[in-house]
Amino acid sequence: MTFPRLRWFFVTLTFVVLPMALFWSEFDRSLNSESDRLRLIEQRNLECLIWEMKPVDTPFDHFSAFLFDRINEEIRNSDSAANFKRWSGALRNRYPGIFTFIALDKDGRPIQDVSDIFAPPELLQNFDRDFRDYESGSPERLLAHAPRYRSFFGPLFGQNKSISNQTRYFQVSYNDSHSFLFVSPTCEMGRFLVFLNRTTDYMQLGWKAWLEDMRWQHPIYRFAFVDLHKPARESRLLLGSAWRSLDKALVRLGMSSGVTISIDNRLWVQMPVSSRYRILIVRDDRSTGWGKTTRQRVGMMIALLFICGTWISRLALDGRIALLRSIRMRLLFLLFYAVGLPLLLFGLSSRSLVDERKAVRVGDLYSFQESLLRKFDGGYLKYLANAEQKITQYFQRPLSADATFEDVMKQRILDVWQKTSPSFCELLNEHGNRVLRIPSSWEAFSRMMNVMLRGGTTKLMAELNGSTVSPVADVSGQMAGATAEMFGIDADFTMALFTKHLNVLREFRLADFRLQLLIIPIRDSSHHVRLLAMIGWDGRTLESKYIKSSLSSFSREHGNILLHARGKSDESKMYSPGFKSASFSAVIYKHRHRLVEQSVPIHHQFESNGKTWLMTGMQPGLLTKFYLWAFSPDDELRFASKAEYGRFAVLSMLLMIVGATVGRWLTSGFLVPARHLSDGVDALRRRDFNWRIPVVVPDEIGRLAATFNSMFEGLADLEVARIVQDTFFPNDKLVIGSPEIFGSAISNYRVGSDSFALPLGNWEIFGSCRSASSVGGDYFDYFPLPDGKIGIVIGDVSGHGISAAIVVAMAKALIAHPLCEFDPVRVLSVMQAVLLNTLQRKKMMTCFCAIFDPDTGILRFANAGHNYPYLLSEGKLQELSVPGFPLGTKSARNFTQKEVTISPADTLILYTDGFIEAMDTRGQMLGYSRVTAVLPTIQASDAVGFEHALREWHGNVAPKNPPDDDTTLVILKRRIFA
Predict the structure, then answer these.
(1) What is the rounded CA–CA span in Å between residue 777 and residue 596?
(2) Model confidence, pTM
(3) Does residue 966 sit in helix, strand or coil?
(4) What is the DSSP secondary-structure string of 443-500?
(5) β-pairing, 858-864 with 870-873?
(6) Is the pLDDT of residue 869 over 90?
(7) Distance set, CA 259 to CA 42, 52, 112, 243, 439 (Å)
(8) Among 14-18, 349-353, 794-798, which stretch is predicted with the lowest mean pLDDT?
(9) 715 within 8 A of 686, measured Cβ to Cβ
(10) Is the dihedral of CA 374, 379, 384, 385 positive or negative?
(11) To 10 degrees, the CA torsion angle through 401, 403, 405, 406?
């Protein structure tokens, strides 16, 4: 792996992969949390739906509801008997033997063609008329005429006077055939009656009818009545594609009821009907599908961002993004990344920490709710003890002087009855007779107690008074005990319990009766027991009193927690101080089955009135007739979470301030000096060598700025040298005109000037030089000679820069010396002698020297190791080769001279080696072959155009600027005029 690729790999890993990995980890955690929440909601909905199913005492509840719903959906607005016949036939096939249909028209007459049995027309007309009155709220006529209808409908018709207008069915017989009658609502056709029959499988068919009705109400669920003795594929139509997982689901569900499991991205819940049959509800796990779809979308987005990020990082490393070419922008980006990535990590960690702490606080709140409910449940004992103490003390209060003992006690027991509403309340004398009896709903219990206590009371009071029982009373007690045994009551054992628990409120059971009983022996002023007060409350009554009297005050002590109590057997008994219980009834109704199944408290969160509430429900240990619930808003939890987020936000701000401070320090200590250096580079590009960079701080950048300033001083001198060197080269093209027109043999004019219209046959010579640095080592010149001829010189000093420019200046001085006769061989010989003695072989120079006669076209030339010029004639190239060694390399060398005739259609091209040795875009040398291949293709009317075209081609194939070496071109060509 090469170093640029390794660098690109680490840049991509740091700036692309790492942030995306952090984002994905947080996204995956949030997605899993949300999926779990959605799955829990779906599980709760499934469990609530399965627990809404009532045990099948009679499946005809389901059949009647099924018929009622199908009528409203399918045939209520149809007046065609054929449609009814088709619909009823489909039901008979689906539920064989269950239904027997009788159709009535609008006048109540039977339609025999579509009825299953013959029906007497007059009787059914009267029944239809009476039932219409019953539907309008007047059932008198139907009930009065019920005996005449029994001969047809059944012997039980009219016995049940509470016929529901919703279920619209009632029992008419105990037989299996025509057991129940269903009366439909009025339809367009009329009305129809349905006899419901008990078949061998009517229980299973009833469940199937109920499940079909549920499919209409809940189309997003799949319901199935599964027979374990039949293969799973028979449930294929009901379960769809889920039937393949049926065997696996049944194994995992076992005999559980109302417990949701997840198999193959589906949620399953069951209710066992018997050891053979199961009711299954299946729903696709939308949380899994939603999570998978969301994960795929975000994954595709991250993959796209990864591709874009890697591509952008590659462009940034290659310097193709203009914004990141500035060191200032790169440093700001790195600073942002260095501060932003820790902030991102800190934010992700803080969010996870806040969520964990919130979960802990939610658990603590649930625990606190449980402790409150247990505390309230435990307060029931204290309530009973207080009631026991108050009632006992009330009966023991002293009497006034003018009051009789028995009258006072009667009044006191009446006071207790009015204040506490006991279920059983009696006052017995020492003979076991009732002194005061208060009628109540517990009359049967009162009779049993009277029989049992008639003899036992006398014995009990005698024991309390320390006296003996008279023989008559003893015989009476034995007779009462024998009578109690006839009721299945052990009187002696019961009396022993009474004796042991006098003045104590204890639970007492007698046969099927259970109540909290308080037995108080009442003494007169002489401490003689004369009366026995027996006061008892059934469990629901006493628990209701405790809840009514204590729940409000207990809730006020914990104002942010709302308590609720609801009866187990009668849900209408609700106690909810501080809020309307109807606001939470739906939630309680959904989750009450969890309390039935679970012995541990349940917890749940839900939304209500724009708030999130936390709920805890439990079965009390002492309040056996009620469930207890506690509700708390999450205000304090949200406040605590906001406070933690606020602290984390403050820490984040501190980190940002630190980052901004570091950024400010970088700006003042590094970016500002870096900008000054950048301005200096721009000045250097503009060749403004008078620019100076301010030295802000004497550090490394300050020393670099001082070095730049020193370099600018040297470059100023170099600029002077460049200007001087520019004077060495002719800045105009040289045009050789006609003496008849201009009066002289030679005329120079500026490039691009069109002041002169030159006649056909005139010559033009033009040259240009591109230096690799400010001053270069290439030299060219063309100038007129006194005899009307043209002197042409092109040369190349080894290297470039100041040293090469000095050699060029020496060559210019030698050629331009007035005593130097311009002859190619002579000029090269003089230059060889001077340069050899001066440079001492440390520098060398190639040089091509020529004299051109514009009248004859003859070119005489000599070469000192320079590149051979090309003569382009009629599309063919000819090298003007002549032997020679570079100047300054040999101590003595004779130069040879040649001549060639240039016709008017020819072009002479002179160049330096920098033109040939330039590198193309692939890093390969241009070479002679590519240059010689393109020269014949260039079309131009003059030397300037030829030079421009050749330069344009060279700039395209070798675009480097400035070039690695000086490149010089000199073109000699006759001008062509239109």
Answers:
(1) 104
(2) 0.55
(3) coil
(4) HHHHHHHHHHHHHHHHHHHHHHHT-PPPHHHHHHHHHHHHHHHHTT--HHHHHHHHHH
(5) unpaired
(6) yes
(7) 12, 14, 50, 19, 48
(8) 349-353
(9) no
(10) positive
(11) 180
Q: What pLDDT shows up at residue 657? A: 85
Using alpha carbons only, give the angle 751, 756, 759 rounded to the nearest 5 degrees: 110
**Helix ranges (DSSP H) in 727-770:** 739-742
Residue type, 827: V
Burial degree of 247 (CB within 10 A; 0-12, 13-18, 19+)? exposed
Average pLDDT over residues 907-935: 89
pLDDT in tens, 368-403: 999 999 999 888 888 888 888 888 888 878 776 556
Q: How many CB atoms lie within 10 A of CB 896?
A: 11
Sheet holding 898-901, edge to edge: 778-784, 790-797, 845-853, 858-864, 898-901
Structure tokens at 253: 């569900």
* Alpha-carbon gap, residue 291 to 35, rounded angstroms: 6
pLDDT at 451 over 60: no
Task: Tell me if 905 sits within 8 A of 857, measured CB to CB.
Answer: no
The DSSP secondary structure of 800-827, one letter per residue, reads -SHHHHHHHHHHHHHHH-TT----HHHH
pLDDT-based confidence at residue 753 (cuts at 50, 70, 90): very low
From the list 681, 710, 779, 731, the residue with the least C-alpha distance to 718 is 710
Q: What is the mean pLDDT of the chain?
A: 78
Separation CA 617–CA 589 (nearest Å): 12
Crossing angle for the helix pair 943-957 and 927-934, nearest 10 degrees? 140
Answer whether residue 755 shows pLDDT above 50: no
Portion of the chain with pLDDT greater than 90, in percent: 6
**First and final CA of the chain: distance in angstroms?**
62
Q: What is the dihedral of CA 693, 699, 700, 705, to 10 degrees?
A: 10
With vertex at residue 386, the alpha carbon angle to CA 384 and CA 390, rounded to the nearest 5 degrees, is: 120
Q: Check: CB of residue 188 under 8 Å from CB of residue 79.
A: yes
